[in-house]
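Hi support team,

I submitted a single chain yesterday and got back a structure, but I'm not sure I'm reading the token output correctly. Could someone confirm the output below corresponds to the sequence I sent? I've pasted both exactly as they appear in my results page.

Thanks,
R.
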Amino acid sequence: MPAQIVEPPFQSASGLERYLSEQRSPAQARLGLPAEFVLPHYDLSIANVPGTLAALLGGGLDGAAPPLPDAMWADLATAVHRVVWIILDAVGWLRLRQMVQDEHDLTFARLAQGGRLVPITSVFPSTTTSALPTLWTGYAPAQHGLVGHNLYLRDFGLVVDTLGFSPAGQPRRDQMVEQGMIPEEFLPVPGLAETLAKQGIVTRTLIRRRLADSALSRLCFRGAAEVKGFITAADMWVCLRELLAAHLDERLLLVAYWAKVDTISHHRGPDSRSWRAELRNLAFSLEREFLRDLSQAERKGTLLVITADHGQIAGTTESSILLSEHPVLQDCLLLPPTGGPRSSYLFARQGQVEAARRYLHDHLAEQFAVVDSAAALAAGLLGPGRPAAESPCRLGDLAVLARGDYMLDYKEREEPLLGLHGGLSPWEMLVPLLMARLD
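Hi R., thanks for writing in. Yes, this is the structure output for that exact sequence:
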């Protein structure tokens, strides 16, 4: 008997939130993961945003994830010629929803009243180096191959920090480029801007100036007509307005990425006054430096879209589980855990997979859920479709998934992380999608 298909409740954000919090495909359900986890929904996720943006502009992304269901955006799509897309790092749905409810004069709240604000899911793992390539390709992590933060890359024989594309623990960026990596050729799937350019849609993007030529940026921005660096949040909005005004003759996807919310969340905590202050600052500058003085021509046919790559769960000084305090488990491993502390991949020594699994079950079951990495991949946890050739090799033998606010650390930190992501809690996995016509 075929599985019953339940139509998501698009008529309310709260109904959609409940649906996303509870839904599991039959294959995902067979993994036996805790009920507290929110699993990615690859028809209602950030993987579906690129296809939606392409459709809004009259294009398409063949082979990538399909657009979000029409009910979420089609009524906003009439005669759209330009999409201004803002990607906010680590702005989760649950906290933004509460802030919009508490502060009705916030620009985000006003935009939601005139447009639409709904939740979607992030991808697994809910971390920047997996989510940004998804947002810039329309393919889930399994397909693009960046399946975590620290990854074992066979071609180099190294565990590599894929945010800086250098060996893990090395602070200097882009050392893999020096060793022969070509960022524009690293992913086995086409870039969003590349695909859109072939359809007459121009992509221009804004990122902090010091990151504009990084390996990760080059990997993501393939095919963009322009990559412009900014200095501060206010400068970002000013540059965004200038680019919009200068290119009214183009079918245009104009993208800006702001990362500092994530930084503040890690060091101050996502429930801190500083987190809300940063959102207020962004909202004020959005209104004052971008929205307030837009001309009629700049507004006409322009849709504003705001998304996030993931959220964050609040951590404490007690969140870290040190691998060194579990020497039996450590002795089972060929190398330190890869991936990230909230979603770790274990490469076991020959014949030690079951010993590692048994130790985790017997001693750390309250802190972590454990699944075979191959089973997680086959169940579509990292995305549907055929995985990239390297994805299975980067996932190790076991995936260790954090429960509550725990994380698996293989070394002590100089200061505790007060904001965490990469896992499957609702705080990390539910992200906002805000859409508003500017005309």
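A quick pointer for reading it: DSSP finds 20 helices and 18 strands in the chain. Let us know if anything else looks off.

Best,
Support desk
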